[in-house]
Design brief:
The protein is of the alpha+beta class. Helices cover 16% and strands 33% of the residues. The protein is built from 6 helices and 29 strands. The strands form 7 sheets. It has a 6-stranded mixed beta sheet, with no helix packed on it. Strands 1-2-22-21-20 form a 5-stranded antiparallel beta sheet, with no helix packed on it. The chain is elongated and about 85 Å long.
């Protein structure tokens, strides 16, 4: 009986629940965006003088004010700092959550996060901060009005080994801009990383991928138009890229804009939960072009960069049929499709050209792939300008153009195109 209950619970928990063609995806995990590992944000800490701290003054852009606090007892010294959070509303330090640290110069100081914004740290949870080689501390910042709206913070001790220039720069920076308070020194500060994405898995009959809601304005809500995003990535990927329009779609008041494309399918965003607990989507059967160029219309002038770094103008292929394949190394059916591209390129090299556009964060990956695969077709770098000009909104995608660069069809798979050529 227990096994049956467990299986039912597991089935309900994973991936998506479909009803009336609407797929509900639980977003139970915090995901990392493209800034998570890139940015070196420091939680700066200043010494508490008596029972008073100074508000954040934005590098002297506004005068700081004194704030009286209530400290928990039992510590030899105290330091304070501020975490940006647009969901924090208070008249003395709007848009920031104040933190207090007891015994900041010890191995494992104690952290108090003033989520209720009353500057009384005796009613806040007591948390233990890590030393250099210890696992980071995670905790949530909570929206003042919308209590279920949260962002998650990860704090690890600032690593200074081999970073003498950083130490000098930071010390000089805080001494110059914050003359009215005493900086504790970079050794006692923490690296701040933020989880701004709530993620889950979409499982379809023939496909699966990851999806997330991204809190673009850091207020703990995940359904704000024009700032928050729906991001989709391959199942084997782990970073939700907010900067790439192939994956990130900004929420809009205009429902006709709330669509995204994944693995050749177009999905409508039906509902987004404000606290980021779920998203509802459904596959669209509409004739929405979604930025694509209409059949029979000419594609614009496009210059591509091949794996050797050479610039090539597609206009020179006016007399050829060109099959373009847009992909990444982790895209669905990558190995199968690239094997078929090799067959296509062998069929009629006089009249047909094949171009693989590889999307990667490191451009040299294009050269490595071309050399290792010994591709008999053109391997080129995929990029944002290409997406905009050719209407590419998801990976993998294909575009078949005929003579004089006129669009024949989007979304035809390499396998389908190969069968078309064989039957001719």
């Amino acid at each position: 009986m227990k096994k049956i209950v467990f299986i039912l619970f597991f089935i309900q928990s994973i991936a998506a629940i479909a009803q009336d063609n609407i797929i509900t995806i639980p977003l139970n995990n915090w995901g990392k965006d493209d800034r998570f590992h890139k940015y070196e944000n420091t939680l700066a800490l200043f010494k508490v003088q008596g029972d008073t701290i100074k508000s954040l003054d934005f590098e002297d852009l506004r005068p700081s004010v004194d704030i009286i606090i209530k400290k928990p007892l039992g510590f030899k010294n105290y330091a304070y700092g501020f975490l940006f959070f647009a969901g924090s509303i208070n008249y003395k330090n709007n848009g920031f959550v104040t933190v207090l640290i007891g015994d900041y110069n010890t191995t494992n100081p104690t952290l108090f996060v003033d989520n209720n914004q009353n500057f009384d740290f005796t009613d806040d949870e007591k948390l233990t901060l890590p030393y250099y080689n210890q696992k980071g501390l995670e905790f949530d910042l909570q929206n003042d009005i919308f209590k279920n709206g949260k962002n998650r913070i990860l704090l690890t001790r600032t690593v200074l080994f081999g970073k003498l220039d950083l130490r000098k720069y930071k010390d000089e920076y805080y001494q110059y801009y914050y003359k009215d308070r005493a900086f504790v020194g970079l050794d006692f500060t923490y690296r701040e990383q933020r989880y701004l994405a709530k993620s889950g898995i979409v499982k379809l009959n023939d496909d699966s991928f990851r999806i997330a809601l991204h809190d673009g304005n850091s207020n703990g809500k995940f359904n704000d138009n024009d700032t928050d995003r729906v991001i989709v990535i391959n199942y084997n990927d782990s970073i939700f890229d907010t900067t790439n329009d192939l994956f990130a779609n900004k929420l809009s008041k205009d429902k006709k804009n709330n669509y995204f494309e994944k693995n050749g399918k177009i999905f409508e965003i039906v509902e987004v939960d404000a606290e980021g607990s779920f998203i509802k989507i459904k596959q669209s059967n509409s004739d929405l072009l979604f930025g694509k160029i209409a059949v029979g219309k000419k594609i614009p002038k496009v210059v591509i960069t091949n794996h050797k770094g050479e610039k090539k103008n597609l206009k020179k292929l006016n007399k050829h049929q060109v099959f373009m394949y847009f992909t990444s190394l982790t895209s669905k059916n990558f190995e199968k499709d690239t094997a078929i591209l090799r067959q296509i390129a062998n069929i009629d090299s006089c009249n047909i050209r094949v171009i693989l556009f590889l999307y990667t964060n490191k451009s040299y990956t294009v050269r490595i792939y071309a050399n290792q695969s010994k591709a008999n077709y053109t391997v080129a770098l995929g990029h944002k300008v290409l997406n905009k000009k050719l209407g590419i909104r998801g990976l993998p995608q294909t575009l078949l153009v005929g003579k004089r660069r006129k669009v024949i069809k989007y979304g035809i798979t390499p396998d389908e195109y190969l069968n078309m050529l064989i039957k001719k």
